[in-house]
Amino acid sequence: MKKINFIEAMMKHNQIVLVIACVMMLLGIFGLENMPRREFPEFTIRQGVIVGVFPGSTSLQVEEQLTTVVEDYIFGYEEVNKLKTYSHSKEGQMIIYVELNDNVRNADKFWSKLRHGLGELQMQLPSGVLALVGSNDFGDTSALLITMSSEKHS
């Protein structure tokens, strides 16, 4: 018994190849027709920033009295990815970069809840802390088209 090569079999039975090609084309057309089309597609941004301002304090004071307290607070939320969240403390200010876990479906709801909680937490912080702000509003889509023209060069 001779073993049949795949290519030989397809050449011998070209109707199968035509049927497969037609089915693939129909699936492609069906997929193209049902694909969502938007100028600005929706996507979830899972990153945000918390900024705290503590004027007149050293970086050590900011770390101990502000950053550690805020980190402990945000790590109480199960939505926060503790491995990808990190902070920087400088003289007079603190920045915490927060990333949410992939299973968070409604990030806006979480950020609203966190901002409300930060407002309550600020009342427990030292009186010198002027601001404690959470923001995730840097993922808006924008586009800019710049063209140049010249009469000398085309």
TrEMBL record:
Superkingdom of source: Bacteria
Cross-referenced SUPFAM superfamilies: Multidrug efflux transporter AcrB pore domain, PN1, PN2, PC1 and PC2 subdomains (SSF82693)
Source organism (scientific name): Xanthomarina gelatinilytica
GO cellular component annotations of the record: plasma membrane
GO molecular function: xenobiotic transmembrane transporter activity
Gene3D superfamilies, per the entry: Multidrug efflux transporter AcrB pore domain, Multidrug efflux transporter AcrB pore domain like, Multidrug efflux transporter AcrB transmembrane domain
Name of the protein in its database record: AcrB/AcrD/AcrF family protein
Lineage: Bacteria, Pseudomonadati, Bacteroidota, Flavobacteriia, Flavobacteriales
Pfam families reported for this sequence: ACR_tran
Membrane-spanning ranges: none
